[in-house]
Amino acid sequence: MTTDAGTEVPAGGPAPVTVELLGVLAYGELSAFDRLAEDARAAPTLTGRAQLSAMAAAEIGHFRLVEDHLGGAGVAVADAMAPFTALIDSYHASTAPRSWLESLVKAYLGDGLGADFYREVAGWVDPATGELVRRVLADTGHSAFAEREVRAACEANPHQRDRLALWGRRLLGEAVTHAQRVVAERDELAEFIVGGSGSGGVAGLIRTVQAAHGKRMGRLGLS
Amino acid sequence: MTTDAGTEVPAGGPAPVTVELLGVLAYGELSAFDRLAEDARAAPTLTGRAQLSAMAAAEIGHFRLVEDHLGGAGVAVADAMAPFTALIDSYHASTAPRSWLESLVKAYLGDGLGADFYREVAGWVDPATGELVRRVLADTGHSAFAEREVRAACEANPHQRDRLALWGRRLLGEAVTHAQRVVAERDELAEFIVGGSGSGGVAGLIRTVQAAHGKRMGRLGLS
After folding, report:
1. What InterPro entries has UniProt attached to this entry (chains A, B) (predicted)?
2. Degrees (nearest 5) of the Cα angle A204, A206, A207?
């Protein structure tokens, strides 16, 4: 049995679409690690650098949960990730932060967007995978740091606030565009989302994610 | 009470020299995270990238143990690290890997050098700090990956082996030079090492570290 993407899935293992979802999730975590680690270098203080580095390290903790889960089902995480690296790299290239505050906003909103999507999906996959996804998405307690830093900067400087609000909206737009490209290339994934989300379909899922994004913008002081 | 480096230490808190040692340890971990994360990007495979990223993340786990320990004693880790960032950054700048294999050799030997030094020191500080240091140095199980990769590359290519052996010796030389500069600038730290190491002094400690380095070179197939 192989997935749309051509990944070998052992007989009796997880459904191919589940492997695809976990492949996207795993590479999402690994690439987020990479971007956060790079952004941490530009931190204005050692404390900020340590905080963003800790956020990056938490992504690897999540990545390893997915790796172990797939490994237990006989699927190498590298194989599951491979079909999705180019598109996720393209998302990050199109949203490279140009400042420390842009890094924090991206870390916070990006984590949230991924979590919204996978929280919906967790109910549509087999129970063991659903449980894994919920563990991976558990808040690691780092978000309070980003909220505090961004809110303080916005309160001190309304012009900064406007620019970051624009940045937050652009991040949503790029994320949706890239997610649509992933789904457009994978019929099974599209069917899976339509089947899971009921009458709402992919568009309904996007609306759910958009609403949650708006609330998160509010918590950063950007709405 | 302040350390040589000027860090405020609360009355009844850890000895100033202990704060200095933990400051070096903490920034050693944070900067190792940063270098490993950058090196992971150059991995030839997704599996290698995930492995080096996991090594980087483990450094942050260690960093946070030190941060919590210092925090419990009323010392901000950023203050404890600040006096040592320039010298440790200088070590990394002088030993920037130019290839994936150089990255692995540096990760493996660098972790080992730090561990050797702190294992000696763990017996000379207060018991709680000694216990912390031993936990921080516990092998995270990532070293087997570096050993395997480097050995395989060396067996396949003796020329590669010679170049990496030279690299391994240079890493030791740079580490010793930089460590000597740290000690030379801090009288209390020098006295602490002389006091702890008995008649061997700083030179004896360096010999101990050198011997262990040679054994590690052997495990990589580089002796």
Report:
1. Ferritin-like, Ferritin-like_SF, Ferritin_actino
2. 65
Residues in A touching B38 (Cβ below 8 Å): 37-38
pLDDT > 70 in chain A, percent? 93
Q: State which amino acid sits at residue A76.
A: A
Taking only the tens place, the pLDDT of each residue in B21-33 is: 999 999 999 999 9
Q: Which residues of B are less than 8 Å from A59 in CB distance?
A: 57
Is some CB atom of chain B closer than 8 A to the CB atom of A89? no
Which residues, in sequence order, are bridge partners of residue B8? Answer: B2
Residue of chain B nearest A81, judged by CA positions: B46
Q: What's the CA gap between A69 and B69, in Å, rounded?
A: 33
Q: Say whether residue B42 is in contact with chain A using an 8 A CB cutoff.
A: no
Cross-chain Cβ contact B61/A57 below 8 Å: yes
Task: Answer whether A15 touches B (CB < 8 Å).
Answer: no
With vertex at residue B152, the alpha carbon angle to CA B147 and CA B157, rounded to the nearest 5 degrees, is 130
Q: Give the percent of chain B with pLDDT over 70.
A: 93
pLDDT per residue as tens digits for the range B33-58: 999 999 999 999 999 999 999 999 99
**Mean pLDDT, rounded, for A164-181:** 95
pLDDT by residue (tens digit) across A131-161? 999 988 876 667 888 999 999 999 999 999 9
Confirm or reject contact between A119 and chain B (CB < 8 A): no
Hey, what long-range contacts does A71-74 have (CB within 8 A, 24 or more apart)? A73/A10, A73/A13, A73/A14, A74/A10, A74/A13
Residue A11 has a pLDDT of 65
Element (H, E) at B213: helix B201-219
Contact A202, A195 (CB under 8 A): no
Dihedral sign (CA B44, A177, A107, A114)? negative
Contact A78 B30 (CB under 8 A): no
CA A104 – CA A169 distance, rounded (Å) = 14
